[in-house]
Amino acid sequence: MPRYGLAIDTTKCVGCHSCRVACQNQQKLEFKHAFNWISEVERGKFPAFGKEFVPLQCNHCENAPCQRVCPTGAIYTNDDGIVLVHGNRCVGCKYCIEACPYKVRFIDEHRGISVKCWLCVDLVAAGKDPACVTTCPTQVRIFGDLDDPNSKVSKFIAENRAQPLRPDLNTEPKIYYKRS
Amino acid sequence: MQECAWGWLIITYLFLAGVGAGAFLVAAASSFLAPDWSLTLRRAGAMISGPLVALGTIFLLLDLEAGLWEPWRQIYLVSNLRSMISWGVIILSLFIPVSLLYAASVLDIPKVSLKLKKYEDLLWYLGSILAISTGGYTGVLIAVANGVPLWNTPLLPVLFLASAISTGLGASLICAYIMEPDAIKDMTNFAVTHIFFLIAEFVTLLLFLFISKTRSIETAQSTDLLISGVFSPYFWGLVVIVGILIPLVVSVLEYLKIAHVPKPVVLTSDMSTLIGGMSLRALIVLAATIPHIIL
Q: Which residues in A2-157 belong to E strands, given as ranges?
């Protein structure tokens, strides 16, 4: 079974937010909601300074705190390593929102359930890449199987020593970042 | 940056479950330590504990989203025993009936009490264990949420349990006074319990603040919000002065018999422990600071 993940090269990100828009289109989200977004961080001191754009979304943690605290068992990891929410089981207790250190979840007020990025699991099942990956004009995102040492994503992580965000939290995220 | 998905409904739940569990422990302790002269307090504690926890549970249910509109989904709530909410559902659904039965047995209701009297000891044991579980679990519930570093400390359940017992004693004394104003001629004997648990709460709160100030960037930010930031007037005013110092001073005056403390003053100080307990839970929930994920 594959173990899908992403590598994100923040040195190439120009902050155009097209990943966010593509995701909103693909998942039919309202404009105020997003499964992914870009955080802007200022680096350095004048005159040598710059801005780093860090795309954020669900990290599909191997040791997912949201899955651990979910009382209904609505949150599960599928065979491909993607963390998903069972829409008919979730009661909307918001415990997962409190437990997620990356704060990527929100309540879908129409369905009353907790939602987040689900790595376009329908597209992935059809052999395609997630919408945020295919739409990115600077090819910041690389999607693939982390368990296959010859996949593009594994090679990128190895070559660039890409690291997940806050590995000290022990959540074992499946999204790796090459940072500037 | 403050971000918290939980609000006043959960805060009220944490408070009411604490007071209810504390009131049961007060009733259980009175029947164990002083069955003769504390009967009114025992009845008062037993009477309010079940309804308060049940009311708290209603607040908890009102905070659900899909689970509130489609209540049959709540059947799934005990699916994951790694989740504190699943444990909470089990504890609450045992504690509420046990405490109501104990109250029915203690309150001398015709016919009902007679049948329950022979089970009173069993209800006492079960209820005491479940009351400690309820009081402590409200703290563990939020202590295991990785998304808020301020809460991730084993001191939190201890703090909540100490506060549960002092607020439970306060609520039981108020209720006892309403039931039989003359029954409690001298409240000195309860003052020492108040002193003990208020000091326990105060010491735990201080440890919590000192440790949170140094544990991580996020916990230090949350602590600053409490002790010198936007929440500081409420923290020092409502939690420390109204919730701990005023009842502590009144109880010490009462216990050492330094001055005559009229009953209305004692009852006001009991009421102020309740204000302090509610404020403590509100501030700890509202001062949540999320982890800095981009370092």
A: 4-9, 36-45, 48-57, 75-77, 83-85, 106-108, 113-115, 141-145
> Between chains, do A112 and B142 touch, taking CB under 8 Å as contact?
no
| Residue B285 in tokens | 């929930």
pLDDT band per the 50, 70, 90 thresholds, residue B1: very low
pTM assigned to the model: 0.94
Residue with tokens 């040598």: A48
* CB atoms B68 and A92 under 8 Å: yes
What ipTM was assigned to the predicted interfaces of this complex? 0.91
Q: What is the pLDDT of residue B44?
A: 92
Distances, alpha carbon A176 to alpha carbons A2, A55, A59, A173, B146, in Å: 17, 11, 9, 8, 20
DSSP string across B43-98: HHHHHHHHHHHHHHHHHHHHT-SHHHHSGGGGGGGGS-TTSHHHHHHHHHHHHHHH
Residue pair B27/B46 in contact by the 8 Å Cβ criterion = yes
Closest chain B residue by Cα to residue A101: B147
What integer pLDDT is reported at residue B224 of this predicted model?
96
* 3-class DSSP assignment, residue A119: coil
Mean pLDDT value across residues A169-175:
94
C-beta atoms of B6 and A94 within 8 A: yes
